[in-house]
């Protein structure tokens, strides 16, 4: 019985260790993220769905396959920071899971989406590109962050 206590303690320590994240990139400044993105816009997600997919050429449609899933969010445009996004459209992201760089697309939330060139016309978004969501557009931190992005826009 004396041996069981240290074994249980070791198991608890291992189980409580933080999950390692496979989603990591080199830190980039807001200006670098702005310059790297093809399109940057603020939008409200109005509906979400899950869809099967496999990667395809950036100019081809996403191909359906078994096993892989993406989250698709239908949006309504609120503000454009860079590029020419549609007034209504969709973005896709990996499901928000440990180790994934996906964004939790939630109907009713607002987001600033950074869409890169490397994903072609798919409007793929993730945390590494700078995209982020918020539920209180009038919050002090949200207003400050939106103002910082507006300052990056060329005149």
What does it look like?
Helix content is 21%, strand content 30%. A hairpin with a 5-residue loop joins strand 2 and strand 3 (88-93). With 155 residues, it is of the alpha+beta class. It has a five-stranded antiparallel β-sheet with strand order 3-2-1-4-5. It is built from three helices and five strands.
Question: Quick gist of this model?
Answer:
The chain has helices spanning 4-16, 30-36, 140-152, and strands spanning 37-52, 69-82, 88-93, 110-116, 132-134. With 155 residues, it is α+β, with helices and mostly antiparallel strands.
Index terms:
OB fold (Dihydrolipoamide Acetyltransferase, E2P); 30% strand; 3 helices; 5-stranded antiparallel beta sheet; alpha+beta; 155 residues
> Any idea what the radius of gyration is?
19 Å
Helix-strand sequence: HHEEEEEH
Query: Briefly, what CATH class?
Result: Mainly Beta
Structural class: alpha+beta
SSE inventory with pairings:
Blueprint: H1 4-16, H2 30-36, E1 37-52, E2 69-82, E3 88-93, E4 110-116, E5 132-134, H3 140-152
Antiparallel strand pairs: 1-2, 1-4, 2-3, 4-5
